[in-house]
Amino acid sequence: MKQIQWFPGHMTAAMRMMEKNLSLVDGVVFVLDARCPAASFNAKLKKLANNKPVLYVLNKGDLADGRADNILKIIRGKGAAAVKINAVNAGSKRDITGAIDSLIAEKRARALEKGQTRIFRFMIAGVPNTGKSTLINLLAGSRRAETGDKAGVTRGKQWIRCGSFELLDTPGTMPPAFENQKFAARLAFVGSINDDILDIDDIALALLAEIYEKYPVRLAERYGIEGGTPLEMLETVCKKRGFLLRGGDYDYERAERAVIDDLRKGKLGKITLDTVEDAEACAF
Predict the structure, then answer these.
(1) SS3 assignment, position 279
(2) What is d(CA 147, CA 238) in angstroms, rounded to the nearest whole number?
(3) Quick one: which of 43, 29, 34 has its CA closest to 180?
(4) Residues with Cβ < 8 Å from 173, sequence gap 6 or more?
(5) Integer CA distances (angstroms), 128 to 1, 33, 147, 254, in order
(6) 3-state secondary structure 252-271
(7) What per-residue string of b and e applies to 54-91 under the rule 16 or more CB within 10 Å gives b?
(8) Mean pLDDT split into 10-residue runs, the chain, 284 residues
(9) 272: buried, middle or exposed (CB in 10 Å: 19+, 13-18, 0-12)?
(10) Nearest CA to 175 among 199, 192, 197, 157?
(11) Which of 84, 85, 185, 245 to pair with 56, CA 20 to 30 A apart?
């Protein structure tokens, strides 16, 4: 599989903007993808937060299975505040507001002792397409932040009032380089990396290999895959779904996109790509 690297110029500008505005916020909310929390952790952003209180939000929890709950426990075990939610579900609003309240409870108490009442501000940060803007819209109770299912929708900063908080929506930002290509591939699987720069053949075959390793029953149920090489699995998808070209040749590209799309939309069931070992080694 070809090396994956993606750090377009606007991300450098975004990092500078975030660094410049950090002094204006009381804490940082890092939004992770619950299907790959370790892969979607950006150590550069964590370093940027410095000594600010940090909350990890494992979003898209409805697409992840129990492994994500185990990873959530590991993050908390490292002493970090963390919560798993689904930002498109209104019921998650109470969970996230409660977690944010806890994050600044002591700071708010000290302010009240001095007779001060003020709006507390938080920076919302993370890699692309983890649902940062969707989370802000959940807290705001309306569509205030621009959202999309493609990496890189948010390009500039947006201050948004959300009840007793004010949130700074920031562009999704990747590490300048992927030292862990396994993590890079998982980010590609879930749509956090712009599809236009990816080799769709490599991504689909790698995805089939990883899903077969961890969730073979899902591939059997969805496509009738019982084993074989990743290419043979892809050919089974072509046969199962009728992805054929004129003359009877397999339409590999259509099958590749179908498999990737099925993962992203949850049609393969609840899946968590990261392992407990991945999370234990991560510097949350």
Answers:
(1) helix
(2) 33
(3) 43
(4) 11, 14, 15, 18, 42, 44, 45, 125, 126, 127, 128
(5) 22, 10, 11, 25
(6) HHHHHHHHHHHHHCCCCCCC
(7) bbbbbbbbebbbebbeebbebbeeeeebbbbbbbeeee
(8) 89 92 94 98 92 96 97 97 96 94 90 87 95 92 57 60 88 92 98 95 98 98 97 98 95 98 97 97 95
(9) buried
(10) 192
(11) 185
Phi-psi map region of 60: left, alpha, beta (phi>0 left; psi -120 to 50 alpha): left
Q: What is the pLDDT of residues 221-234, one digit of tens each?
A: 999 999 999 999 99
Query: Which two structure tokens, joined as six digits, stand for 202?
Result: 């490599």
SS3 at position 55: strand
Distance CA 247, CA 266 (A): 33
Tokens of 222: 């969805």
Helix or strand run (H / E) with residue 212: helix 200-214
Alpha carbon separation from 6 to 13, 71, 151, 225 (Å, rounded)? 15, 26, 11, 32
Which tokens sit at 52? 């600010």
Contact 43, 19 (CB under 8 A): no
Give the residue carrying structure tokens 């697409």: 63
Looking at residue 173, the DSSP 8-state letter turns out to be: -
**244-272 pLDDT tens trace:** 999 999 999 999 999 999 999 999 999 99
Judge if pTM exceeds 0.70: yes
| Distance in angstroms (rounded) separating the CA atoms of residues 112 and 212 | 55
The rounded distance, in Å, linking the Cα atoms of 27 and 178 is: 26
